[in-house]
């Protein structure tokens, strides 16, 4: 069974990354794309060699030939269209963050259970084999006990003030857009949930008062913390460092996969520094295959919908902390 995907929106992330990833996957094909403007959908379909174009989201989710839907809409539309798609019997891959808050995410999870369909959050980096390699290094004891994690994801898009990232009521801001990456990575590596968040942010009047830069600490058990920063008005970085008692693991490009030497990571111990080479793979294709195989076999996802709910609880705490300038227990 080949999974027939429909894509709701002609967003850049869909056209440049996720659609090519599904096309390279072993389990799926992109069958249809929808826009609220039929001309836009038709143009994208022609450009990306997609068989069917729709001029409404409703028409796409009612197409009985479509098995699964990818949703890269602005954040405030995730819940509405994910639930509509699931009620129509479609499996859903929803762009991160899955919702505006944990309450919305819980409603989406409930809808997925009721409909008996897969709901997944699109954190593509988690499916790259380097994270399995990193887990094996940690389990081997080479870096000793974990003492801390530091993550950073920043870029500068501040001049594009019309961008959806700069609409507060649409779920704009750097925590929603890129802060979720180090947050989800720390939870994945620690296999645990943080107990509290403390975040300081720069809110820009020029950008509808969204957080353009944020820095924070998440408190895990045993005195371990994630320290992180994220931003949309800063020089580009997407790094992660895992610090242990006997060494550390450094990922110069932790979330973006370039399919070249930048994807490699480094193991630093008292024996010296070792560059760990990783396979050159398309992590969007790997994401599509993990979800596709779950749809085909009924096996549980490695990161099911309840993981997305937990991640949103952390993000809720981070946003509250930044806005109210206080430590927030989770």
UniProtKB/TrEMBL annotation:
Keywords from the UniProt entry: Oxidoreductase
Domain of life of the native organism: Bacteria
Ribonucleoprotein found in the keyword field: no
The name this protein goes by in its record: Gfo/Idh/MocA family oxidoreductase
Keyword Membrane assigned: no
InterPro entries (alphabetical): Gfo/Idh/MocA-like_OxRdtase_N, Gfo/Idh/MocA_domain, GFO_IDH_MocA-like_dom, NAD(P)-bd_dom_sf
Protein family membership: Belongs to the Gfo/Idh/MocA family.
Domain Gfo/Idh/MocA-like oxidoreductase N-terminal residues, every copy: 3-121
Segments forming domain GFO/IDH/MocA-like oxidoreductase: 131-250
Coiled-coil region list: none
Signal peptide: none
Organism: Gracilibacillus salinarum
